[in-house]
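hey
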């Protein structure tokens, strides 16, 4: 199958002409497209260049210009990236998993019958190019030949046994060259490779289960990630059991950590570790060393593999004496073909003439790494002789980071440093302010860097200072910078907030854990973890530390939900002791005043007449976008949380496809190409929506109205977690509306803002907001209440707005795809998965999402006239959960059980090694059963029952919408049809194996 599909890809690529020696961008993510694509390209005689579709658009455009390829190969999901790189007319698309793919050549890999591969590569031909960080601020493409990779894979078979006996886990992303051996070594020797589904989030627990499920024998880790993995294994015996099949782990990219090696060996004595070394310029890796499990001292890099040479030379390119420090030069079969287009003359600097007749090849590669050789001929790493560093195993030129930070208009100068020891390194940017009265903020600098650099190169912290320290030669003094950063950290943080000490036992425990993990003597309970240099790896270690101190299970998501000691302690306690403080913050937020405007009488709409849509990747927002693209045809601007235009387009397309909005999916590309749809990557809660000043000014001048469907929704999180997106985002949109002359806002809200005090009587007046002390308890509802207060104030200041308060919004009547955040949908889904139903008095009001989309877009585009104020947007048909259960039980023969048994089954399935994610989320929300009662507890009924059951249908809604009942029944029927395909046995989803 793999050979067949790669042959198809090769045949279609060759339709573009002779490709021998050419570079072909390979735009794919994780999964089978990577091996299919790289093998297809190799079979044409060309070389593949992996490109990450999530890279910032400016970087992608630079790569497109650098490569200038005749043809590109991409997965359909990367279509937006292809357009950003300027390759839309030169792309071949791999077939997508659901069979839908497009190509500008009007053909796909799936329907092209190649049947043959026309070109056989030669040993000296190029096989791949990988982009690495560049010291001048631009990435450079390191090229390698077939013979170098063949030598590496052959050496692995000699050292580790034939690949036919191995099952490897591709544990590296395709844009890291270590992914090549993980895929090609087993596949070219008769073995297997496991390609796990990933979303970019580090999930070491899932990695352990994948290894166990597929009896993986070999994989690799960056040493810092291995350290976190070892800590996890020490706390979870079941994960250690899952690694019985694992026989070898390769590590590389950072200095190895002897204590971690010893700890791993104590737990898993059957697993061998091999240290590997080699730059991207030299065929993945050229030096190996099997690590002694009982190692006490420094771990060597090792010795050169077959047909390669590793030399430690002085400045005159003479071998140094044993024990003396010199620079590592590599020679032999591993040496690559240099850099594409020889940027800044780098080829002559890095690839130098080989003066040693006993070393094969005309050139040596100068690594820039310092090392010495001991009396056993083992090479030991000492450090770098330039500004290149490794962070998380990723090679980073500090100059590239400095160049990006230095290009910010408010920055005078920039320099970066790394802090920490091996395995716990953080990247910190330091900048001086260009303007004394307007220093840049850390958050805007990080957002600016994130829009221009890959995620792994964005500094964890950025310190703003008046001037950067210089040495006597007039250069940045990086040692002084380290002292400056440490001094800034010792002061606490960069936000200027008051610091506070712990006030209860739980806060004391969490504070102690933070200090232990961060290596600090003091932390403030109100300072975010990242401000102390905390990263995702340190969050993981913090979880382990807290488990040990509290003697119970603390989950990483508990800590990620709150980023301060105080917030984490509150989640661990599970109490509501901070409600008074939260209420005070809520009242302060609601008192904010927008800019006052005086709308011009008869002001003309802008010529482009565009609707700004937020939240278009969400459940309701995606249907809004579909309505605008297919039914209204207004000009649209979509603000999408993404690092690049390409990434934003991918998110939009993925949402449309997930909700099966096929017509809108087809219209998307045409609307972008015609200019009717403009996609802007931004941050709703950031100043100017996170847009560059030029784009923000353009948006103001073309704005017709705003449809605001974007929101953070997490029923487990508090007000503070929702505050930035839901309150801050509303503030920014009010500023935009004021700056645009009072453009109207159409904002989604929720009927759940009305708390328990309001549920005993019917709510008839849409304009009436509850008092702050009568609010619902959950953070989402409270944040939407504050947003409504801001909009109410805005109307007094001349900013027109309509608020649409929604109850339970159900799937599209015809398509039936549920809202993934809906508690009601999750309960019905869980009944099917667990094979049972239970007694409950819960009721809900069903409003189909297609009806919501039609009404809101009709009012936003002036096809339906409504005054300012709030609309209770819902159908009047109320259905009980028991009625739904009756339908489900009749169709699926579901077993009637008590609520306690239902909850027990959900909990069991949620704890499986590969659990159903929807059941995991539901399990966190389900309240415990009442003692001895079969029926659902009162707390469950409060969670399920729609607040709209006590609300009158809006008098502002057209009569046809207020009286329509059939839509509600159709929406329920559509979702139940979708559930009919859900298996009752909760089996883990299969991983892809080749």
């Amino acid at each position: 199958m793999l050979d067949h599909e790669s042959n198809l890809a090769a045949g279609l690529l060759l339709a573009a002409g002779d490709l021998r020696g050419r570079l072909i961008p390979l735009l794919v993510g994780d999964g089978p497209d990577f091996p299919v694509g790289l093998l297809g390209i190799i079979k044409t005689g060309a070389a593949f260049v992996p490109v990450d579709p999530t890279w910032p658009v400016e970087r992608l455009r630079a790569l497109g210009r650098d490569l200038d390829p005749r043809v590109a190969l991409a997965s359909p999901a990367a279509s937006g990236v292809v357009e950003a790189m300027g390759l839309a007319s030169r792309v071949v698309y791999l077939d997508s998993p659901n069979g839908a793919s497009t190509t500008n050549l009007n053909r796909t890999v799936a329907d092209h019958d190649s049947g043959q591969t026309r070109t056989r590569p030669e040993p000296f031909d190029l096989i791949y190019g990988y982009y690495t960080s560049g010291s001048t601020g631009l990435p450079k493409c390191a090229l390698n030949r077939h013979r170098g990779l063949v030598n590496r894979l052959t050496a692995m078979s000699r050292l580790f046994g034939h690949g036919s006996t191995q099952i490897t886990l591709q544990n590296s992303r395709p844009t890291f060259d270590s992914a090549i051996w993980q895929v090609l070594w087993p596949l070219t020797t008769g073995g297997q490779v496991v390609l796990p589904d990933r979303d970019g989030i580090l999930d070491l627990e899932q990695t352990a289960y994948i290894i166990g499920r597929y009896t993986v024998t070999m994989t690799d880790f960056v040493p810092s990630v291995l350290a976190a993995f070892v800590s996890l294994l020490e706390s979870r015996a079941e994960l250690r059991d899952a690694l019985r099949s694992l026989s070898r782990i390769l590590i590389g990219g950072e200095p190895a950590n002897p204590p971690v090696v010893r700890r791993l060996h104590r737990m898993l004595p059957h697993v061998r570790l091999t240290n590997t070394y080699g730059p991207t310029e030299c065929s993945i890796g050229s030096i190996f060393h099997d690590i002694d499990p009982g190692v006490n001292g420094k771990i060597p890099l090792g010795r050169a593999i077959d047909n390669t040479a590793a030399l430690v030379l002085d400045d005159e390119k003479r071998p140094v004496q044993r024990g003396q420090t010199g620079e590592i030069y590599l020679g032999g079969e591993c040496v690559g073909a240099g850099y594409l287009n020889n940027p800044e003359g780098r080829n002559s600097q890095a690839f130098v003439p080989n003066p040693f007749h006993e070393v094969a090849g005309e050139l040596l590669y100068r690594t820039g790494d310092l090392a010495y050789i001991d009396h056993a001929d083992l090479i030991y790493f000492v450090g770098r002789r330039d500004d290149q560093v490794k962070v998380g195993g990723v090679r980073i030129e500090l100059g590239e980071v400095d160049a990006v930070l230095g290009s910010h208009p408010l920055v005078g100068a920039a320099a970066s440093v790394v802090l920490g020891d091996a395995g716990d390194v953080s990247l910190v940017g330091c900048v001086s302010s260009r303007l004394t009265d307007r220093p840049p903020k850390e958050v805007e600098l990080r957002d600016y860097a994130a829009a221009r650099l890959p995620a792994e190169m964005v500094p964890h912290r950025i310190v703003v200072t008046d001037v950067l320290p210089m040495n006597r030669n007039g250069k940045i003094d990086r040692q002084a910078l380290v002292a400056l950063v440490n001094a800034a950290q010792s002061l606490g943080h960069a936000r200027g907030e008051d610091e506070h000490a712990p006030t209860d036992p739980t806060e004391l425990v969490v504070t102690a854990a933070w200090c232990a993990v961060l290596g600090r003597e003091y932390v403030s309970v109100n300072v975010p973890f990242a401000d102390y240099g905390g990263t995702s790896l340190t969050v993981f270690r913090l979880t382990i530390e807290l488990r040990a101190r509290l003697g119970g299970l603390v989950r990483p998501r508990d800590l990620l939900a709150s980023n301060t000691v105080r917030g984490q302690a509150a989640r661990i306690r599970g109490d509501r002791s901070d409600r008074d403080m939260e209420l005070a913050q809520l009242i302060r937020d609601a008192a904010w005043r927008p800019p006052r405007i005086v709308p011009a009488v008869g002001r003309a709409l802008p010529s482009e007449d565009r609707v700004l849509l937020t939240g278009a990747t969400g459940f309701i927002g995606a249907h809004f976008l579909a309505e605008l693209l297919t039914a209204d045809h207004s000009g649209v601007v979509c603000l999408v949380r993404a690092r690049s235009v390409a990434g934003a387009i991918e998110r939009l397309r993925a949402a449309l496809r997930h909700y099966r909005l096929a017509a809108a999916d087809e219209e998307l590309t045409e609307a972008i190409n015609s200019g009717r749809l403009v996609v802007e990557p931004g941050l709703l809660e950031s100043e100017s929506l996170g847009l560059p000043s030029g784009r923000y000014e353009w948006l103001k001048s073309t704005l017709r109205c705003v449809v605001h469907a974007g929101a953070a929704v997490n029923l487990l999180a508090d007000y503070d977690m929702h505050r930035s997106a839901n309150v801050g985002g509303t503030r920014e949109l009010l500023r935009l509306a004021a700056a645009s002359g009072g453009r109207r806002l159409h904002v989604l809200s929720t009927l759940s803002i009305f708390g328990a005090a309001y549920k005993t009587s019917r709510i008839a007046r849409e304009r009436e907001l509850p008092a702050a002390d009568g609010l619902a308890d959950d953070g989402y509802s409270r944040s939407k209440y504050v947003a409504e207060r801001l909009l109410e104030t805005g109307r007094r200041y001349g900013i027109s707005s309509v608020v649409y308060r929604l109850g339970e919004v159900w799937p599209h009547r015809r398509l039936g795809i549920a809202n993934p955040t809906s508690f009601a949908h999750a309960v019905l889904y869980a009944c099917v998965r667990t094979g049972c139903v239970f007694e409950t008095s819960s009721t809900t009001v069903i409003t189909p999402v297609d009806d919501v989309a039609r009404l809101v877009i009709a009012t936003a585009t002036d096809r339906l006239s409504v005054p300012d104020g709030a609309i209770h947007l819902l159908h009047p048909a109320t259905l009980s959960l028991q009625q739904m259960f009756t339908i489900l039980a009749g169709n699926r023969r579901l077993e009637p059980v008590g609520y306690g048994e239902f909850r027990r089954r959900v909990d069991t399935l949620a704890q499986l090694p590969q659990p159903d994610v929807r059941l995991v989320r539901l399990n966190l929300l389900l309240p415990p059963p009442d003692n001895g009662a079969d029926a659902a507890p009162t707390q469950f009924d409060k969670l399920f029952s729609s607040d709209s059951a006590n609300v009158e249908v809006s008098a502002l809604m057209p009569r046809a919408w207020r009286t329509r009942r059939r839509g509600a029944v159709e929406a329920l029927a559509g979702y139940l049809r979708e559930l009919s395909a859900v298996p009752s046995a909760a089996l883990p989803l299969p991983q892809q194996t080749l």
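The domain at 389-490 is CATH 3.30.300.30 (GMP Synthetase; Chain A, domain 3). The longest strand covers residues 363-373.
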